[in-house]
Amino acid sequence: MVRLLFLVLGIAGVGLMAVVLPQSQQQTNVVAFGQVSQTQDTQRVMEYTPSAAQSLRTQNRVLFFEAGWCANCRDALKELETRSAEIPASVTVLRANFDFETELRKKYGVHYQHTFVVLDTNDQVVKMWVGGGVDELKKELELLGII
Q1: How far apart are CA 4 and CA 82, in angstroms?
Q2: pTM
Q3: Number of neighbouring beta carbons within 10 Å of residue 13
Q4: 44 within some domain
Q5: Domain presence at residue 66
Q6: pLDDT classification of 34: cutoffs 50, 70, 90
Q7: Considering its fold, how many domains does the chain have in total?
Q8: Residue 138 CA, distance from chain mean position
Q9: Beta strands in 23-111 (DSSP E)
Q10: Is residue 45 included in any domain, yes or no?
Q11: Confidence tier at 107 by pLDDT (50, 70, 90)
């Protein structure tokens, strides 16, 4: 079985290129686009879907725009997964694919991958920042009085 691990967008209209590795060469902690890691705490970190975002409207939601080709995003995603127990139970991080969620990016004015967006219950931006991981997330949520 072969899984799609990375999607790299070509620059200047070169097109799409997929890098595929045989399953024997894959790492179990790499999450392919459209899949949720089995080790991931799905209560605190989960893949963005419109229905997931809608069902969580009464909770504290943070969108994390990530891209598989972004080394910082991969590091942050790995940290979010491995340290998910440190994310307050009242907060859900929704992973949004930077390359595929173009309408969502436009809606919230996201111009860079590795962007975090805290939303209120009306889907309005409360806070947005680029970069960081669990420590930065907790710091920003604390400054907002969410934790």
Answers
A1: 22
A2: 0.71
A3: 6
A4: yes
A5: yes
A6: very low
A7: 1
A8: 15
A9: 45-47, 60-66, 91-97
A10: yes
A11: very high
